[in-house]
Design brief:
The complex is a heterodimer of chains A (120) and B (431). In chain A, helix 1 packs across helix 2. Chain A has a 4-stranded antiparallel beta sheet, with helices on one face. Chain A is built from 2 helices and 4 strands; from the N terminus they run ββαββα. In chain A, a hairpin with a 6-residue loop joins strand 1 and strand 2. Chain B is an alpha+beta fold. Among the domains of chain B are: 95 residues, Gyrase A, domain 2, CATH 3.30.1360.10; 75 residues, DNA-directed RNA polymerase, insert domain (RNA Polymerase Alpha Subunit, Chain A, domain 2). The longest helix of chain B is centred in the N-terminal third of the chain and has 21 residues. The chains are: A alpha+beta (120), B alpha+beta (431). At the A-B interface, helix 1 and helix 2 of A face helix 6, strand 2, helix 7 and helix 12 of B.
C-alpha cells in the first residue's frame, strides 16, 4: 500500500538533479556524491574503478534504504587529486573499457560465426 | 635484550628495500588471483592480516608519522621527533643505532613516496597492482563457447566480478522487451476469471517483436490516443483457446510496413485457458515496451548467470585403488584414470571446467566407515587433502538463455550499450 511505483526506480522526477555533491567539512579532499535512481549495478562498478585509482584513499557506496532509490558514493583522495576529478576519471576509464569490451565481443562473435561456417 | 631488539630491527629495515622484484611470494599470488574452496562451504574470502609484535607496532607508528610529516617538515626535524618518541617509550636502542636506523627509515620512505603514484595494494612489496585501461585492454579476452538461437555460453577473462554482476543484473532487469499490458475483454464465458486470464496473457514470453523498433509509452498513462478510424474493438481478432494469439491494433499507418514479419508469439504451444463446451473468449490485447525492473514479464532472458572457472589441483599423486574411488566419486567426471607403464593407475584432472564445486572429492568420509576401525578412518580421510578446489577470480563463464524476442548475442550487446548509457548519465554536471 505504501510501496512506491515501480517506475520510480529509474525515472528521475522533475527538479531533482541526477548527481549532487557535498564536500566533507571535516576532512580535506573528501566528498559524497548522491546519485538519484541508481542501484548496485552502477554503484559497485564505480567503487571498483575508484579502488583501482592509486590517488584514491577511500571509496565506498551504499544504498541508504532499499525503498529510496539512490546511492551515496563517498570518496577520499590524496592531495594530488580531488574527489570530483577521481570520479570523472573513473567514469571515463569505465567508458573506454566498456567500449573495448563491446568491440572485443563483436570481433569474437564474427570469428565464431566464421568458425561455424568452416566447420561444416 | 637490546641486542636482540636491534638485530630484528636491522632485518626488518634491511629486508624491505630488497624485496623489490615484480613478483609476490607464491602464497600471496595465490590469494590475489584464486578463491580457495574448502569442504565447509560457503567459504569467505580471506583478507590479508598481519600479526605484529610490540616492536613492529612502534615501528608502524613511526613510519606513519614519518610519511605524513615528511610533506611538511625537513628530514632532520622528523628524525629528532622520532628519537624523542623512542626515548619516551623506552625503546631499547643505543643512541647510534637509533639515529642510523631512523635515518635509513626516512630515506626508504622518501623513496617510497616518490614511487607512490604507481603502486597500489602490495605496494610495500614492490608489486604494481594498479590496473590502468591499457592493462585491462591487454589482458581482456572473450571466447564464445556455444551460440544457438536460444542460448549462449561464453567466457570473459580479465574483468572484475562487479562488471560481470552488472551485466547479469542488466540482462535480467533492464533490457527492454514487448509484453502484453492492456487487455480489453469482449466476451469471457470460460471458468478462468478476467483478471487471471489477463495476468496469464501478460506473462506469455515476450513477443517475437524487436523492441528496438518501438518506443516507450509515457510512464504516466493518462494519455488518450486519438483513433482516426473509430472504435478499435470491432477490429479485434478472435481468440482461439491455447493456440497462438495474433494481436494487432490500427494506427494511422499500418505497422506492417515497419516490421518485417508479422507480430506473433514465439512459442505456439502455451495453454492460456481451457474451454468447455459452449464457452468462448474474445478480447483484444495491447503490447507495450517495458523493462524487467517494472515487472518481470518484460525480462528478455529466461535467466542469465555466471560462474567463475573452477580449477582442480592434485597436490600429491593419487594412485591405484584410491584413484578409482576418486573417479567414481565425482558426479560430473572431472577426473580420469591415466595408466602408468607398469600397470599402476594415476588420477588426473580431465575436465576441470565441468566441475560444479560440489566438494564430493574433498569431503571426509561419513561416520559409518570410520567406526570400522581407526586405520580405515585414516585411509578414508587421507586422499581428500590431496586435492585442492579453487576458482579463478577473473575468469567468468557466462550463460544467457533468451526467451526468444532477441537473440542472445544481441541481448548482450544491448546490455553493454545500456551500461555505457548509465555511466554517461552518472557523470556529474558540476565539473
Amino acid at each position: 500500500m505504501n510501496a512506491p511505483d515501480r517506475y520510480e526506480r529509474f525515472v528521475v522526477p522533475e527538479g531533482t538533479k541526477k548527481v549532487s555533491y557535498e564536500r566533507d567539512t571535516k576532512i580535506v579532499n573528501a566528498a559524497s556524491f548522491t546519485v538519484e535512481r541508481e542501484d548496485h549495478t552502477v554503484g559497485n562498478i564505480l567503487r571498483m574503478q575508484l579502488h583501482r585509482d592509486p590517488n584514491v584513499l577511500f571509496a565506498g557506496y551504499k544504498l541508504p534504504h532499499p525503498l529510496q532509490y539512490k546511492i551515496i558514493v563517498r570518496i577520499h583522495t590524496t592531495s594530488q587529486s580531488s574527489p570530483t576529478q577521481a570520479y570523472t576519471q573513473a567514469i571515463n576509464d569505465l567508458d573506454k573499457e566498456l567500449e573495448y569490451l563491446k568491440q572485443a565481443f563483436e570481433d569474437e562473435k564474427n570469428r565464431y560465426e566464421e568458425r561455424m561456417k568452416q566447420g561444416f | 635484550m637490546p641486542k636482540k631488539g636491534t638485530k630484528s630491527k636491522k632485518k626488518e629495515v634491511d629486508d624491505v628495500p630488497n624485496q623489490q622484484e615484480n613478483k609476490l611470494p607464491d602464497y600471496l599470488e595465490l590469494q590475489r588471483t584464486r578463491v580457495v574452496c574448502n569442504d565447509d562451504a560457503p567459504i569467505y574470502v580471506h583478507t590479508f592480516i598481519c600479526h605484529s609484535s610490540l616492536m613492529a607496532f612502534h615501528l608502524l607508528i613511526m613510519i606513519t608519522f614519518i610519511t605524513l610529516a615528511l610533506h611538511m617538515f625537513p628530514c632532520e626535524i622528523v628524525c629528532l621527533v622520532c628519537l624523542i618518541y623512542c626515548l619516551a617509550y623506552k625503546l631499547n636502542f643505543t643512541y647510534m643505532h637509533r639515529y642510523f636506523y631512523i635515518k635509513r627509515l626516512i630515506d626508504y620512505i622518501t623513496e617510497y613516496n616518490s614511487r607512490l603514484p604507481t603502486l597500489g595494494t602490495f605496494a610495500a612489496m614492490g608489486v604494481d597492482n594498479s590496473v590502468s585501461v591499457e592493462k585491462f585492454c591487454k589482458n581482456f579476452k572473450i571466447e564464445i563457447n556455444r551460440l544457438t538461437e536460444d542460448d549462449m555460453e561464453f567466457d570473459m577473462i580479465g574483468i572484475d566480478a562487479s562488471i560481470a554482476n552488472a551485466f547479469r543484473r542488466i540482462l535480467i532487469a533492464e533490457v527492454p522487451t514487448m509484453a502484453i499490458e492492456k487487455v480489453f475483454m469482449v466476451d469471457n464465458t470460460s471458468v478462468i476469471a478476467d483478471e487471471v486470464l489477463s495476468h496469464r496473457l501478460g506473462l506469455i514470453p515476450p513477443l517475437d517483436a524487436d523492441p528496438r523498433l518501438f518506443d516507450y509509452i509515457s510512464v504516466k498513462s493518462s494519455e488518450l490516443e486519438w483513433l482516426p478510424e473509430g472504435s478499435q474493438l470491432s477490429m479485434s481478432a478472435p481468440a482461439h483457446s491455447g493456440d497462438k494469439q495474433k494481436t494487432f491494433t490500427s494506427f494511422s499507418q499500418s505497422q506492417k510496413e515497419i516490421l518485417e514479419k508479422p507480430l506473433g508469439v514465439k512459442f505456439k504451444d502455451i495453454t492460456i485457458a481451457r474451454l468447455g463446451p459452449g464457452q468462448a473468449i474474445e478480447f483484444e490485447a495491447h503490447a507495450v515496451k517495458g523493462v524487467g525492473k517494472v515487472h518481470a514479464k518484460w525480462s528478455p532472458v529466461a535467466t542469465a548467470w555466471y560462474r567463475m572457472l573452477p580449477e582442480v589441483v592434485i597436490l600429491e599423486e593419487i594412485k591405484g585403488a584410491q584413484a578409482e574411488e576418486l573417479v567414481k566419486k565425482c558426479p560430473v567426471n572431472v577426473f580420469d584414470i591415466e595408466d602408468l607403464g607398469n600397470g599402476g593407475k594415476r588420477a588426473v584432472v580431465a575436465k576441470p571446467r565441468a566441475c560444479t564445486l560440489c566438494r564430493e572429492c574433498i569431503r571426509p568420509e561419513e561416520s559409518e566407515e570410520s567406526t570400522e576401525g581407526a586405520s580405515e578412518a585414516q585411509e578414508s580421510s587421507a586422499p581428500w587433502k590431496q586435492i585442492e578446489l579453487r576458482r579463478v577470480r577473473d575468469h567468468f563463464i557466462f550463460t544467457i538463455e533468451s526467451t526468444g524476442s532477441l537473440r542472445p548475442e544481441v541481448l548482450f550487446t544491448e546490455a553493454v550499450k545500456i551500461l555505457e548509457e548509465k555511466c554517461e548519465r552518472v557523470i556529474s554536471e558540476l565539473s
